[in-house]
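#structure-requests
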Amino acid sequence: MKMLRKRFLSCPKTSFFLFGPRGTGKSTWLQQRFPDALYLDLLSDDLSRQLLAKPERLKELVEARTDRKTIIIDEIQRNPPLLTTVHQLIERHKAFQFVLTGSSARKLRREGVDLLAGRAVMTSCHPFMAAGLQDVFSLDKMLLHGMVPIVALSEDPQQVLRTYINLYLKEEVQAEGLVRNLSSFVRFLEAASFSHASVLNMNAVSRECEISRMTVEGYFSILNDLLIAVRIPVFSKRAKRLLVQHEKFYFFDAGVFRAFRPTGPLDQPQEIDGAALEGLVLQHLRAWNDYSGAPCTLYYWRTRAGSEVDFVLYGKDTFIAVEVKNSDRIHTEDLKGLKAFGEDYPEARRLLLYRGKHERLLDGIVCLPCERFLKELVPNQPVPASV
């Protein structure tokens, strides 16, 4: 079935980087947005070899087609030295627009690339948003398979998801020599999946994997650099209580989390579904924030006494606390964290997202159906908060 979908990426007028994990639709969107661009795919072995051997060949390719004012270079991290040539071309040809995509920032940072000294803005590409799929969006299905376009659009999303994970390990990790021991890294990924939607404990992951903490820290850095995981800090502004200090960890997509997470007779489906739902909300909030021009910073809040709020959005005109519950009913205990947060920060709006069907207002807390909230979360519009 062909799925109708809308992407919310904005297109800067200047040259720009477009970063996002593999399979999130960067190339497809650019080819639709710039059908007449000069398109250079560094995943093409032949072209990649030519430009690696002699980066200045890029000048020959570009200046031979001066009728093409937009030049797209796909997967720029495969050849970081090209950025020096791109920089020179931007200075020489003011009318040209370069669009540079990447699924990893690791090589660019490791090799000391200056990312064009600020002459290209940074943009991000995320998986689908529910608002872009609307009636095609199914919360239950997306919790199982995620919203990576090549997976969500597939007739067999489970098989494509497995293939996607295997290719990511092979092409992005093994091929680039990011780890010496791939089997050790695979064990780490399974252990890390138990930390999804949880406060990150490096020592616990180290013990589970039976590898050193230093190695575990390096592996988590790889996940961040490959854009397949994110960590969010604790909200501590004007703190009135003792707070935890560690960050919270998530894979970038609910389906990717499910693919890494091993299951067995002792695993509780409700617990896994809850972590997947929390991650699905986060990936939407991240997409909304980035596509809106990053008006806020994403945090979570947790006191040492155990009060917790899943997400805090904080910016010039935004201060919202969001709690996510994988239940179709709201219990008094579910409101505990938001109530505590409201005592410390009465200025904040407080939202509870749950699996029920009706809006409710309980003790000043707006309770919204999660599926409807996600469908109504549209970049450059306020975060939905009815009632």
